[in-house]
Amino acid sequence: AILAHAELHSERILGRVIRDGVLPPGRYSDKQLAESGISSATEVDKVIHAPRTTETTKLELKQKFWSWSGDDYDVKDPTGKIYLKVSGKVFTIRDKMILLDASGNKICMIQEKIIGSSINDAQSFQIFTYKPKDRGQESTEKDDGTPVYRYAVVHQKVWNTGNNFGDQYNAYLYDNNEQKEPPLFSAFRETWRWEWDSKVNVFKGDQVVAKNGNLEECEIVAKFGMFDKNWWDNVVDDNSLYGIEMTKDLDPILNVCLAIICDAMKDKADDK
User: Fold this and answer.
1) DSSP for residue 190
2) CA end-to-end span of the chain, whole Å?
3) Euclidean distance between CA atoms 223 and 187, whole angstroms
4) How far from 121 is each of 116, 204, 265, CA to CA, in Å?
5) Which residues contact 206 (CB under 8 A, 6 or more apart)?
6) Which residues pair with 141 in a beta bridge?
7) CA nearest 124: which of 145, 162, 150, 147?
8) Phi and psi (nearest 5°) for 71?
9) Phi, psi of 120 (to 5 degrees)
10) Which of 66, 21, 14 is nearest to 194 (CA)?
11) For labeling, which of 13, 107, 151, 201 is most exposed (least CB within 10 Å)?
């Protein structure tokens, strides 16, 4: 009862703040998505597999789908159609996940990176594709003997950009195996949320850098985490679904990878 009262009080305060046009620190999931996901860091002609989104797009994930248990699972669209499959493989040194299309063909690989790119990187994961991202790109890793190629990397930051609370995750594209600046995305985990209700908001990375972390002046391009039944038009009466919501002009597979990585990092940090 105390927990329910505290939650209701918090939501009432949030409602008043939002009506006044100001979001409290760390709470941006109620902010509207940008009209387009394109930024100065976007390579418009390149995607991992599926075409860029042409409208606001939602994908449904099972609860705690990103656990490194080694279980396989499906990512679905709101109609229940399989959008892609994820196969987890747990290793002693580095964990990895393989994303496959609905027919079971490999799309990309997510793998933990032992050493980050700077002392400000608490954890790092790389995204690899099965064909070169750039002309002349050399393979640096293999998946069961098959060459794979660096596509992007995600770092959880030790020190956040600006005066922001909550975990920060920066996603960078590779340019011929070198990390490309500025970050394509800067994602922040919401504060003031219960543990079971954690959400992550994905901002345009170039704006976060340019505005020195003033998120009020930065555009959100995607959101993911646990959402209640009102977030989906066709779900049953529960609040145990995870999802991703993306604006148009985004690489959908890259954003699924980012969602997986952010929560894998959180799970690993919680286990320490």
Assistant:
1) P
2) 31
3) 9
4) 5, 19, 12
5) 39, 40, 41, 182, 183
6) 148
7) 150
8) -70, 150
9) -90, 5
10) 14
11) 13
Dig out the tokens for 187 from the structure.
């994602």
Highest mean pLDDT among 2-6, 69-73, 117-121: 117-121
The CA distance from 70 to 75, in Å, is 16
d(CA 185, CA 204): 5
* Block residue for tokens 């976007």: 42
- The count of residues in the chain is 272
What CA dihedral angle connects 107, 145, 171 and 26, to 10 degrees? Answer: 80
- 8 pLDDT band, cuts 50/70/90, is very low
Strand partners, 33: 220
Using CA atoms, how far apart are residues 265 and 154, in angstroms rounded to an integer? Answer: 10
Q: Note the helical H segments in the chain.
A: 2-19, 205-210, 252-271
Q: Please report, for residues 92, 97, 199, 216, the alpha-carbon distance to residue 110 in angstroms, rounded to integers and kept in the order given.
A: 15, 5, 21, 31
Dihedral angle, C-alpha 143, 144, 147, 149, nearest 10 °: 0
Give pTM, 2 decimals: 0.85
The count of other CB atoms within 10 Å of the CB of residue 76 is 18
Task: Please tell me the distance from the alpha carbon of residue 180 to that of residue 177, in angstroms, as a whole number.
Answer: 9
Least confident of 16-20, 181-185, 204-208, 238-242: 16-20
Buried b / exposed e over 136-169, threshold 16 CB at 10 Å, is: ebeeeeebeeeebbbbbbbbbbeebbeebebbbb
**Which H or E element spans position 222?**
strand 220-227
Distance CA 200, CA 37 (A): 16
In this structure, are strands 82-89 and 72-76 parallel, antiparallel, or unpaired?
antiparallel
